[in-house]
Amino acid sequence: MVLLGTIINTLLIAVGAVIGRFLQGIPDKMKETVMQVIGLAVTVLGIQMGITSNNFIVVIVSLVIGTVIGEWIDLDLQLNRIGKWLEYKIGNKGEHGDIAQGFITSTLIFVIGSMAIIGALDSGLRNDHSVLITKGIIDGFTAIFLASTLGIGVLLSAVSVFLYQGLIALFAGQISSIVPVALLDTFVQQLTATGGAMIIAIGLNMMGLTKIRVANILPAILVVAIVVTIMHIF
What we know:
- This protein is an all-alpha fold.
- It has helices at about 5-20, 30-50, 55-75, 75-90, 95-110, 115-125, 130-150, 155-170, 170-180, 180-205, 220-234.
- It is globular.
- The chain starts with a helix and ends with a helix.
- The mean pLDDT is about 85.
């Protein structure tokens, strides 16, 4: 079953988010400290991802151009509007900011990185789900801590993971036949590094040190693909 790894990964995130939701009753002082510690851990993860690039110019160009595009269309505002709509539907009044923040933060952490792409390709090409199952276990524990501080928005990120990894797995054959191995490897490397910068921003926000509109940096992912493709052709 091509989607088995993706389904397991999605379910583990959902279970972790539900468990974390029940842990929201912890004292505010403890919750604040936990949030800062999670932010610190996320920042370290982002640094680890960021240093994988062997051509940091690609990362800088992608981040700058992507941010200009994101600020122009104001993705952060659009996603917060979705958060308000979800708040209305869920009946979670007064927490639309938390829903949007939880959704954006957890989605970025779960989908950006080499494990998501490589694992989905392994599922689609070789029916090998070990990478995604391992990723799912890591994501599940991460979801517990994120949901305990960021709320129900973390649960919604499971949908993003299912769609993202599921589509890669379903079209893995076409991707491997169209995209040269060298190009795909370079893309994954540069995407991981660029995503690492976004995750560092998330970590700094969670620690209360910055207020970076991370959602407005998301177009950098598309820019990475374009820049890497142009470099490969020329």
